[in-house]
Amino acid sequence: MWKALLAGTTALAIAGASVAFAQQPPPQAPQAGAEGRQHWRPSEQDVNAFTDARIAAIKAGLKLTPDQEKNWPGVEQAIRDLAKDRYERRTERRTERRNEPRPADPIERLRSRADTMTKTAADLKRLADAADPLYRSLNEDQKHRLFFLVRSMRGHHMAMHWREHRGFDRD
């Protein structure tokens, strides 16, 4: 049960934060693609709007009861914090890449990646702690809907991973 909860919470976190992967390009150096076209990168306001939309979709799809609704604000805030932190880390990393070359030392790169993973793990832990009471209160229909909402927002591979842990039948 704990693995299912953790997997579901992780999926929910990723769904809520999945659009936060992009950064705003520097004004003086727009990035161009292989054909010379500029890549559009969502601004922080765009990322916030997409996060709002995904949160609203999850909440609407779950059709929470009044008792379940009491546990929603903590989950919503944890998703927002996760998206914000991820956006900031990616923006910081992009700025560092522009200003400094990538470290040649593979051990230093490993340490840097480990630091990033530690920060992400802390965010996911906060989300898991916030989502635990809500997830435990969901009925089976709501859990199925959560699965499909996350699947439609994140992609098939994440949903299949969660499905395996939840014991759902395969497609």
Beta strand count: 0
From the structure provided, what is the oligomeric state, counting identical versus distinct chains?
single chain
Q: What's the N-to-C terminus distance?
A: 22 Å
Strand content: under 5%
Number of domains: 1
* Biggest sheet features: none
Spell the H/E element sequence.
HHHHHHH
**What is the radius of gyration computed over CA atoms, rounded to a whole number of angstroms?**
18 Å
Helix content: over 70%
Q: Flag low-confidence runs.
A: 18-30, 156-164
Backbone structural class: mainly alpha
Shape: elongated
The helix tally amounts to 7
- Mean pLDDT over all positions: 77
Written description of the protein model:
The chain has one domain. The chain has 7 helices and no strands. Helix 1 crosses helix 6, helix 2 packs antiparallel against helix 4 (72-99) and helix 2 packs antiparallel against helix 6 (140-154). 73% of the residues lie in helices and 0% in strands. The longest helix has 32 residues, at 106-137. The protein has 171 residues and is mainly alpha-helical.
